[in-house]
Specification:
Elements lengths: L1 H15 L14 H4 L3 H7 L8 E3 L12 E5 L2 E8 L2 E7 L5 E10 L4 E7 L5 E3 L2 E4 L9 E4 L21 H4 L1 H4 L7 E2 L4 E2 L10 H5 L3 H7 L3 H5 L20 E2 L4 E2 L9 H7 L5 E3 L14 E3 L20 H4 L3 H4 L4 H4 L21 H4 L2 H4 L10 H5 L2 E4 L3 E4 L8 H7 L4 H5 L5 H11 L11 H8 L5 H10 L5 H10 L6 H10 L5 H10 L9 H4 L8 H10 L10 H20 L4 H13 L3 H14 L4 H13 L3 H14 L4 H13 L3 H14 L4 H13 L3 H14 L4 H14 L2 H14 L4 H9 L9
Antiparallel strand pairs: 1-5, 2-3, 3-4, 4-5, 5-6, 6-7, 6-8, 8-9, 10-11, 12-13, 14-15, 16-17
Length: about 750
């Protein structure tokens, strides 16, 4: 059976890797829409969608190419003209200065980027961008997008590196009907589009059938309620928002029963990975993308934006979304401007007599503090000059910020005061403030701090049907670090949740369960109607023993595995995709195919450390310790500052019986990744095992100060202090563990075994 499965996977890869793929059928281009939709076309012309990407020309280029010179990070670049074209002399992929022709412009405001096309079809975005703001506000200058980082020519973030590759990173959101056209055999691109920019069909879908419909008689037209459109954006048709005078808040005249518009906008206005092409042909977001959740690396504990996450993940958290508000209720979908200036757009649904008053906002009228957007949509600046508003539309809560360390709009504006002052002022203004609508903050904070109560708190979030699905899904994912008998039942329920976001998260959480035991809980998801869920189920269940499945179950698993392979094949230009396939082959027991996939990932990126780590682990699992160690050493030669490789090499040395030699590697891993308490724990254990108990305690105390609720670190400290004879210190650490969890049996036994304080050797 396994060879048949691999044949299916290989067949999928060959189809997906076909070079020179042509544009999708049915796209006719924006020009075909202009005659019948002149008003909409005129509104779109000059919008950010229209100007999302352009050929470099005198009309499109905003930057100074009159021999402008800028020196950043030790590299001096010169922007100039030659034979009517635009060029930059800057550091190339080999670290040498060279001339590069600007092929395209990217965006217009508040900055403009520039794209360079290479002979193999790669298009790369320069790290130097033009500040398009007015000179009076600091604009009209060249600046670097990473001003505080030294980025060498072989770094993935260098403008010639894979993290600045337009074909993968940017193209599908700046052009219409984009086909990446990656040729995996020759490692080349032949990327195509119907419109270079974001045209009509990027949102409305292929227009050929609609053009055909427009040419029919009125009688025939009436027989096609879709009007030939693949995506019918009609959720606002006939809808009004009358204001309830008792509350001062508008209510939708009829409930919103579909999510078409949000899914269309999410295609580009979200933090997500693309898993299949054709996203502009239908409104099925998770059939084409794997969305990010409210994880701690992207969002603050309360869901406020931290990393560059765009809009979708924030807006789904809002009361506005829950009430049925769509993007185009606030934004004109063609001009992309607000439907009313600034906070006047809020007055569409929030009665000014109720909300635009000092009683509501606590500030003088017409002051900065009276601005709805300043309080409810605070800005975070990305790309140096691009402020973007948080669309979770939350109520500022400095009291919660004070307790949990999240940002708050009050303290941001009143920078001369501390959060305590803001919390006190808020308490005076709103003494009866209860839990906010976004009330998962404490649960996420407890989870990320490793607190015992996190399990119950997360379950409360999941079971509250008023909580947005994206927050419920995140809570399910957070349970992975807190699974107990009670919460595992919650995960089982989440695997059958109506929300595909929650099901997707539940499958990932199921990874904490041994592979052989997962099928009984998630086997039904192999037939899930949503690709993102179905593919994740295939990945998670890949290690299911075949003899436990009947013929129908095996067939479902094979089809889901094919789907998962297709999602990785779509991204065959990335080393991550090949590493993921290596993991899949390893789970299926095919070490040869897994090794080949890991090697392919390293061929694409010789410094891709996760592939070294996984390949080394594959060799280790096969008893090939020497080969495993050699791979780790090679990986460290390519990525000398990768903590995971130092850690893995140290463990390999320990397994070989050379703990003393392992210490520098384990120490380095702890230094490079202080946010990973496990690395510090292992280093401390290794120190202690070589007779360096005092050094072990010192290292563990340093780590525990950064991770005050980490039980593993405290347990090591308690036992090491006991063994050193410092019973008082051992008692303190055991007591600290019990303060987190009074039912901790091991800590109770340890404390009971220690002599009383009066018997301490201290």
């Amino acid at each position: 059976m396994l060879p048949m499965l691999l044949l299916m996977l290989v067949s999928t890869l060959l189809v997906a890797f076909a070079p020179f793929a042509m544009a999708s059928e049915g796209f006719v281009g924006t020009a075909a829409c202009a005659d019948c939709h002149a008003e909409e076309h005129a509104a779109w012309t000059g919008s950010h969608h229209d100007l999302a990407m352009q050929h470099a020309s005198d009309e499109s280029v905003l930057g100074d190419f009159n021999d402008a010179v800028v020196t950043v990070q030790g590299v001096t670049s010169r922007f100039f003209r030659r034979d009517g074209d635009f060029f930059v002399n800057t550091e190339g992929p080999d670290g040498q200065l060279a001339d590069f022709k600007i092929s395209y412009t990217f965006g217009v405001d508040p900055l403009q980027q520039y794209l360079v096309e290479f002979p193999d079809g790669r298009v790369q975005a320069l790290g130097l961008a033009w500040d398009a703001r007015a000179e009076s506000t600091g604009g009209q200058r060249w600046f670097h997008l990473y001003p505080d980082e030294a980025i060498p020519h072989d770094d993935p973030l260098h403008w010639t590196g894979r993290q600045q590759n337009w074909n993968y990173m940017c193209a599908d959101c700046h052009s219409t009907d984009l086909v990446k056209g990656y040729d995996a055999v020759n490692d080349r691109y032949a990327t195509t589009w119907t419109d270079i920019n974001v045209g009509c069909e990027a949102c409305h879908g292929p227009g050929e059938a609609h053009v055909s419909w427009a040419g029919k008689t009125d009688e025939l037209k009436g027989q096609d309620v879709s009007r030939g459109l693949a995506i019918l954006l009609d959720e606002r048709d006939g809808v009004t928002w009358p204001i309830d005078t008792d509350t001062g808040i508008a209510r939708r005249s009829s409930p919103k029963t579909t999510d078409t518009e949000i899914q269309v906008c999410a295609t580009c206005h979200s933090r997500r990975g693309t898993i299949a092409g054709g996203a502009q042909t239908r409104a099925a977001f998770m059939d084409h993308h794997m969305p990010a959740l409210l994880t701690g690396d992207l969002y603050h504990d309360d869901g406020q934006i931290m990393d560059e996450v765009y809009v979708w993940g924030s807006f789904l958290q809002s009361k506005m979304y829950a009430a049925g508000v769509t993007c185009s209720d606030c934004h004109n979908p063609h001009t992309l401007e607000l439907r009313a200036p600034q906070q006047a757009v809020c007055a569409q649904c929030h009665m000014p007599a109720t909300f635009a008053t000092p009683d509501h906002h606590g500030h003088p009228a017409d002051s900065a503090g009276a601005d709805c957007l300043a309080c409810h949509m605070p800005e975070t600046t990305y790309m140096v000059v691009d402020p973007r508003r948080d669309h979770s539309l939350r109520v500022p809560r400095p009291d919660i910020a004070l307790a949990l360390g999240t940002p708050d709009a009050c303290s941001s504006c009143h920078a001369d005061r501390d959060t305590q002052w803001a919390a006190d002022a808020f308490g005076t203004m709103f003494p009866d403030a209860g839990e906010p609508f976004q009330d998962w903050t404490r649960a996420f904070h407890q989870s990320r701090e490793g607190l015992l109560q996190a399990e119950v708190s997360l379950m409360r979030v999941i079971n509250d049907d008023t909580t947005p699905d994206i927050a419920r899904a995140t809570a399910v994912l957070e349970l992975q670090g807190h699974l107990g008998p009670m919460s595992f039942q919650q995960v089982q329920l989440a695997l059958r949740d109506p929300s595909p976001l929650v099901r997707m998260a539940a499958v990932r959480t199921l990874d904490a369960v041994p592979p052989a035991n997962r099928y009984e809980f998630a086997g039904h998801l192999l037939r899930d109607p949503v690709l993102a869920v179905r593919a994740e189920a295939g990945r998670s269940l890949a290690g299911t023993p075949r003899n436990l499945l009947d013929v129908n179950e095996r067939g479902a698993l094979d089809l889901a595995l094919r789907d998962y392979a297709a999602t990785q094949a779509y991204n065959a230009d990335r080393p991550e995709a090949h590493m993921n396939m290596g993991n899949l082959y390893a789970a299926r027991g095919d070490g040869t195919a897994a090794e080949k996939a890991y090697r392919q990932a390293l061929k694409l990126d010789p410094a891709f450390s996760p592939a070294y780590a996984n390949l080394a682990d594959l060799y280790r699992s096969q008893g090939m310790e020497r080969e495993s160690r050699a791979v780790l050493e090679t990986g460290l030669g390519a990525a000398p500052d990768d903590a995971s490789l130092h850690h893995a090499l140290g463990l390999a040395m320990v397994r070989a019986g050379d703990t003393a030699a392992a210490l520098p590697e384990l120490e380095r891993s702890a230094e490079l990744a202080p946010d990973n308490p496990r690395y510090a724990y292992v280093y401390g254990v290794a120190l202690n095992s070589t007779g360096q108990g005092a050094a072990a305690i010192e290292a563990l105390e340093t780590a525990q100060a950064q991770h005050p609720n980490n039980r593993e670190l405290m347990w090591a400290l308690a036992t090491f202090e006991r063994d050193s004879g410092d019973v008082a210190a051992a008692r303190r650490w055991a007591t600290a563990i019990l303060a987190l969890n009074p039912a901790d049996e091991a800590a109770n036994q340890l404390l009971a075994s220690l002599p009383g304080e009066d018997e301490s050797t201290e």
